[in-house]
Every structure is written in structure tokens, then in C-alpha cells.
What does this fold into?
Amino acid sequence: MGIYDEHLDRNAANYQPLTPLTFLSRAALIHPDRTAIVHGSLERSYRDFYARSRRLASALSRRGIGRGETVAVMLSNTPAMLEAHHGVPMAGAVLLSINTRLDAEIIAFQLDHAEAKVVIVDLEFSEVMAEALGKAKAAPLVVDYDDPDFPADAPAKKGEPIGSLEYEALLAEGDPDFDWQMPQNEWDAISLNYTSGTTGNPKGVVYHHRGAALMGYANIVAAGMTGHPVYLWTLPMFHCNGWCFPWTLAVQAGTHVCLRWVRARAMYDAIADHGVTHLCGAPIVMATLINAEENDKRPFTQTVTFNTAAAPPPQAVLAGMRDAGFEVTHLYGLTETYGPAVVNAWKAEWNELDRPGQAARKARQGVRYPALEDLAVMDGRKMEKVPADGETIGEVMFRGNIVMRGYLKNPEASAEAFRGGWFHSGDLGVMHEDGYIELKDRAKDIIISGGENISSIEVENALYLHPAVQTAAVVAKPDDRWGETPLAFVELKPGRAASEEELIAHCRAKLARFKCPKEIRFAEVPKTSTGKIQKYVLRKMIDD
Amino acid sequence: MGIYDEHLDRNAANYQPLTPLTFLSRAALIHPDRTAIVHGSLERSYRDFYARSRRLASALSRRGIGRGETVAVMLSNTPAMLEAHHGVPMAGAVLLSINTRLDAEIIAFQLDHAEAKVVIVDLEFSEVMAEALGKAKAAPLVVDYDDPDFPADAPAKKGEPIGSLEYEALLAEGDPDFDWQMPQNEWDAISLNYTSGTTGNPKGVVYHHRGAALMGYANIVAAGMTGHPVYLWTLPMFHCNGWCFPWTLAVQAGTHVCLRWVRARAMYDAIADHGVTHLCGAPIVMATLINAEENDKRPFTQTVTFNTAAAPPPQAVLAGMRDAGFEVTHLYGLTETYGPAVVNAWKAEWNELDRPGQAARKARQGVRYPALEDLAVMDGRKMEKVPADGETIGEVMFRGNIVMRGYLKNPEASAEAFRGGWFHSGDLGVMHEDGYIELKDRAKDIIISGGENISSIEVENALYLHPAVQTAAVVAKPDDRWGETPLAFVELKPGRAASEEELIAHCRAKLARFKCPKEIRFAEVPKTSTGKIQKYVLRKMIDD
It folds into this structure.
């Protein structure tokens, strides 16, 4: 025992649980009149945002919902979704955000597995939720949310109410001055997000207050946010809790601009009318911005930072975004890492490179996020770091405070993911000499042909360099002679043409011959709601 | 036990101690070639800064210094001081930064009380350190630091070496690739700072890794730092570890510009030549900038943020700073709160106020820092918050993760400071209706005259509004009839004149009569090295 080990213990004055909930209370105290939320014609101040979140927490508490109980929501990027991110944990409860594209069966599984006590559902999804509730054993309190700004030209319709009460009626039960309590422990769960579950049942990823709070700071540093940022909701909030930006914005009393549907006109309107400074999304959102009709575009003068993930931004998209006035930051992470945990930290000297050189740098996933303690590319069997040579493929692994607590009620999967004291991402990549990682594939997406590893991403990147290619996805096709060979699914750009022979010849000019696709199929490439290509669907299509 | 309480435990993959040490390793990984430190003609990259910090940690470890042992430094704002902030805790040890203005007796007390095992001392201070070591029971390893950029026109001289070896020789013993270990626990001590101890022995304030890491993020948010900030060292790093900026800058791979002596020409040169974006200091530093000779001023185009604390910035100083191109942020805190824990968060609408109105807003200490969980003005006996009426005086109290662990080897003082689960600052203030606090006095500085409380700060503010007043300090003078009356010590501006009668008349135009000083004394006002007025010295002068 040293002198610093005695009489210097924790107490209420010098130790408080880390939680993002204190961000909102602080923003409401300092900036009660600042606009916290814009949603169509609705503008809500921080005073009201905080009061409504407390009403929600109070109403849940009065209905007996408390610490460690699950409150599910199936909501679009609306004010209610933002309130749920604060109000649910202020009641001590855990927020389960359900992907709005899921079918009834998976929704029912999630409600049962998480033992949901409440579900708040947007009327757009009431039909599928009713079906899910029919299949589920859980019998949560069902609350309808009738979006006050459901646009007249919406691509979907509202369904009928299915709940016991409407969201505003629930809020009316609560006290706007509710004396919410800090979490008992910063390790307490704050939210639950199910992975897409390409094989087997979805796994429930548990986040804690500590990690969510640290992401609040880390996002600010990584995204270069200062002053009062204005954030446009193009990334679904059900996706890794919107990469924790629902909490982050409160640190600087920034403004959330909600967006129910990601359409070009609405995005440009928000940027021009509300002074948006930041937005996030998959490359598809960038394509929507770039390829917008001229009528839908609006000029803007501020710098707008676009944080993208899910896939490296293709060179043409990067050039298009720059010409359109956006700065693109490439992020990478998984549901298990609270969203982004790796950032392509851009260096000023890279601006001297030519455009392909810049695109090659931008395609790297990068370095650990400010709040991540360690990032490595490792030989998974030996649990040793691979050489930083840009060539040796290993598994990308994470260690730190923005890694999930584990999978809910699934200790086997948690132990498997955490073996050796690192979170195993399942993604394969290399470590470059300069310490930046670059993904080469999902472990299951690597193609082994004649004993040689082929990175499907490398083949896709070659295909993307062809001017007619809109989307490319390469999977392994079983082959009697080679074991596997690369099979490419390709979507062409509207109005452009290219033959199978032409694309294969194009690849041969770029890649070693054994890496080139033996076959090209022109077809719509299936994607998740967040823009990730669903290779497991493509694999099922191989024999079609 | 709920479902979230099972099988979701901490492990090395999902839990790491919070520490600012990972900030430097990250900066060195991502930006090895960026300039971390500028000191005169010396420029040091992040690669070298990290390697030298590791050398220091390695050398200390090889000499048997480890967890929970104290390494003292008596250094100016030099590269060695920055290296010590990282290298000492990388060895698991605790950094004691000794105020360079202290006398031998207090230094000896600190070395003994902290059981210092090593002391690194700048040659400027070798004489007083030698004297202190003569008085001390502790027999630390003494290391001399010979500043490579000790200017020829320095206002002080180097003394003779007194140590066993020179700092560079110590570093040469260490391994630049030293595999430093994370702290065992984020609650482990990282540094020790003795309060100035106006009465009795100084108290040793213990900081932990957790708080230092959180300050890293909080400073960024509060100071509006983005990109790669350039920070000028006008605040002594021995003062609350330079408000934790030695660690903060690494988060964004910013540049430290060292400054051995705070002189106008050197500050303007740094701002113009190195693109300084941020600096911190007491109002005296602002006065030095504003009142510089025209020859010493340099034009600059960037926005420079000046964070000030110790005393509310007077109106004339604020106007002068604005005219000179600086943005002033007013911060408040104590050694016990890692430096700033309260920020005068400025609101855009306040820019519409006239200059006195703006100065009145700027004089408020403000709201809790981003990483502070709670701030209150309380009735210390009842431990109840005073009404937010801007009038009721109470004691300012803090609660959160940037409050010290306690006072070293002084459980009584710690218990007293933490009674009721709040850190008692000893400062008196009011809570305004809008949630901003404003200090009215130190508890011991309040003047009680005829049973009425008089805030010495209020009287000082009135005096500062007189154009001839450079510095004003008001203390209580014992009075047979009234108990106490306000006595003002005043320094006039060079070349300006004002009589005692004139200043008292000036006060009567601004204040209730009972608050006005009964007597004015024109004298040099004693200040600490950080610019704080030493009222205890003034009190001793009352009977002179």
C-alpha cells in the first residue's frame, strides 16, 4: 500500500457515473431557448426537449418501468426517437431500437428476447408490429406514435393505431420536472441493438452509459464539431443508436434536423435552410446527393462534413462530393463498437496527392477513434499482431471503452467474441506501415482460389473503376477445380452499358489474373436498410 | 437481478482504464511528423515527444520508480515539463509540480510530505532547491535540467548544477520503445498539486487518471478547439497541471508553444509566427498583451482564444482584448477541480448588449464544465441550494469526476472538504435566475460591516471602473464601531493620477454608501505567480 492508496476513496463529491444524460440537462440549463430539434415545421427548444424527455421518463416510471427493463421503439428519425434516447435511460430503462425494415418474425424474436415491457411504434410500422405482437410471447404496453410531420407526399402510408394509448397521451402522464436519477453504475445498460444476424438468430448488443458518454466526446473530436453544430439525420437512429449522435449533440447544444425519408430535395433544403454542418450515412446517401436533379439542389456556403461508413467511398463519389461542397470523413466500426470506432484521420500532406492517390488513402479505414484504447490486426490463432506491411491479412480487433458489454443472454457468443481479451470483428484487413488499417474482407467473404486468398473488396474496387459500374459485389462461387472462384454481381449506371467480357477485360488490366471474376451477373444487388450489401443473399443467388 | 446484470461483465476487450496517456500514443501513431512542441529554435515532432516521454518512463522504471511513487519537478514551461506530464505517469508514478516561486521551506515540506523519490529541477531554481534539499528529510535522486533555449536576455540566471546527473543523461538511460503499462486502475493518482496554503501547511491535491482524461475532452469542448490547435504556454504548467492542457493537446495532435517568460514581444511573436489559436492566463497576462509597446505588437489574422481565470476580466480589459483581436473566455475553478470546472458559456444574444452589459455577463463565472456533473450554490449548514435569485449568497460546491480524490495524507481535511457529498470550494457566490453562478467572495474575504455582508469583489469592480485604477483589492479592516469596514489597496496605471477622496466619491456613485471603502491605500498589490491577489498579505499590511 502506497501513500496514494490510503484515505483517497470515492465519494459522491468526486465520483459520479459517466452518462450522456448529464449532457442534455446541461444543454437545457445553459441554452434553454436554443433550437434542439427541427422536424418539418416543428421547432423544439432545449427546454422543451429536456422537459419532454423527463415526461417520458416520469411516465415510464409511474407505469412501473425501471432499471434494467427494456423499452422498445420502432421509430423513424423523428423527435420521439430523440426523446426516447434520453427519456428511456432517465427512467433507468434500456432502449431497444428496432430496425424499421425488419419483418414481423424478427421483430417478435427481439421483443421476446429482450423481454420488452413497452413498445413505441410509429404508425407507418403499426401493421408489421401488430403482426409481430401476434407472434410474440411478450405482451408489452403498446404506444402509437403519430408523427406530426408525416409529409403528404410520403412514399409510405400510416397504418391504424394498435396501441393502448398515443405517445402524447403517455407524455401527458409524466412530470416535466421529473427528478430522474443517475444510473446506479456507469456500467449499467443504456441501449440494446440487435445485429442484422446474417446467420442464425440476431444477437443483442448491449451498450453502457460509460461508452455512450465517451462516444459523446469522441464524435466531437473525430467529426471536428465546434460551436453549436447542426446535424442532419440521414443515418437511421436505429442503427447503433445513430452512432451515438443523439447524445453527442447535447454536449454542444447543437441542433438535430430530423428527416423521415432520405431524399435529395429534403437534404439540400435542410442544408440551405437550417445551416447543416454535419451528416452521416452510407455511400448511397452520398450518391443521392451527387446525382440529385439540378432542380433539387440548393446552394450553401458553410462547410458540410459527411461522415460515411459501411463501405470505402469510391473515388468518383469522393470527387463528386468535393465538387458539391462536402468534406467526406471515412469511418468504420460495428454495432459492437457503438458505431464508428475507427476514423480515417486525414493528413494535410495527402492533399498534395493526385485524385486516385487521395482516393486510395481515403479508402483506408484508418486509426482508432479518440475513445478507443487499442486497435490491431491480428493472427486470430496466435493472437499476435501481423506485421505492419500493408499485405499480411489478419483479423481486425478492438479493445477499449467503446466496445459493447457483450451479447444479451448469450454468454457463449460473448466469450467467442472476446476471446484473448480482444473483440474479434470478423473483418479481415491489413496494417499499413503508417499504422492505418485497411479492410480486405469479412472473414467469411474472403475467396480462396487455388489456395490463394482473394479479397472480394479488391475485386470490387477494380470493377468500380469502370465508368459504367454503379454497384459491384463479389462472392465466392464453388468450383471443382479451384475450390472457389470470384463471381461478380454488377448494377450498371442508368443509361450506361457494359458487357461481361468488357468488365472481365477491365479487371485483367487492373488485377492479377487469378483475382479476376470468372463470371459477371447483371442484377440488382440486395442491400440492408443502412446500405450494406447483403452478400449472404447473393450467395443464395449463386445457383439461380 | 435483471437480464442486463448477467453475463455482461468487464474484460480486457471492453473495459480499459481511462487515462490521458493513450492520447499521446495515438497522436504519435497518427501524426508522427507533426510538430508537438516549439521552444525557441527547437521543434519536436510527436514521434520524438512520445519517444522521449517513453525514455523518461523507462529510465525511471529502471531506477526502481514505480506505481504510487512521487516524482517532483521544479520546471518552467519547457519541453521537459511536457515530457514529465506523460513520462512520469507512464512509469506508474505520480507527478508533483512544484510552484517555481516558492521558498526553500515550503519546497522542503512538499518533498517530505510527498515522499519524493526523484526531483527534476531547472538550473534557474537550483539554488533554492539545494537549500530545500538541505532542509528536507527526503533524499530524492536529483536531476538537473539545463534548458536548451534559455534566452540570453533572460530576467534570471542559471544556477550551478546540484544533481547526480543531467536530464538528458537520465533520458539516455531509457528505452524509446518502452512498453509502458496502462494504470492499474483509472482511480490511480496521476499528479499531485499543493495548494498555496495561505494558512497552515499546504495541502496536497491528488488527481487521478480518470479525471485527467475527461478534462482532455472537456477542455476541447469548452475552449472550442478543433483541427490541430496551437497552444501558447502563458499559464504555468505547475498550476493545476496547466489546467490539464499538457494532456488535452494530444487528443487533437496540437502544438505546444513553450514560453519561459511571459513577455509581450515573445507572446506576439508566437502568435504571429506559429499561428497560436489558444492561450490561458490570469488577467495580468491580458494586461500585458493590451499594454504592450507598439514595437512589441505583431499583426495576426487567426482567431485567438484567451481563457482567463483567477478573477473576472474587468470591462476595460475585455474591450482592449477584443480590439486587439482576442476572444476571451472566462473560466473558474480551483486546484481541487483540476483547474477550470466552470465556464462562462457565452450566448450569441449577449452580443446585442452594450459593453457594460456584456462585461457584466462576462464577469459571471458561469455554468458547469462539460465533464463536471453538478455545480451548486448552497447554504453550507443546511446543505440546501440557495434560491436562483442572483442575490442570496451561498457557498459554491462541486460534484463530479473532475473533483480531486482528496488531500494526500490528510483525511481530516478531505472529509471536511467533502462533507455532505459535495466539494466545498470556500468561495461565496450567487445563483442567477438563468443558472449562471457569480462569485461574490472567498468565504474568508467577505466583509461584515454593521451586520451587513459586503462583497469585496463588488467594491473592487466599482474601483476598476475608474479610468486610473490598474489593480484594486479590498479587505476587511477591523473597526470598533462597525465590526469591519472595507479598506481598498489600489495600484494606479502608469501616468495616471487619482486621489483617495476622488476614488471614494467614485465608489459612492456606484455603490450603496455602507459598501464604499472608508480608506484607500496606494500600494503595490501582492500577487501569486499565477496572478491571484494575495489578500492574506494585504491583511497583514493593514496595521502598517
In short: The longest strand of chain B covers residues 469-479. The CA atoms of residues 104 and 131 of chain B lie 6 Å apart. Chain B touches chain A through 71 residues (CB under 8 Å).
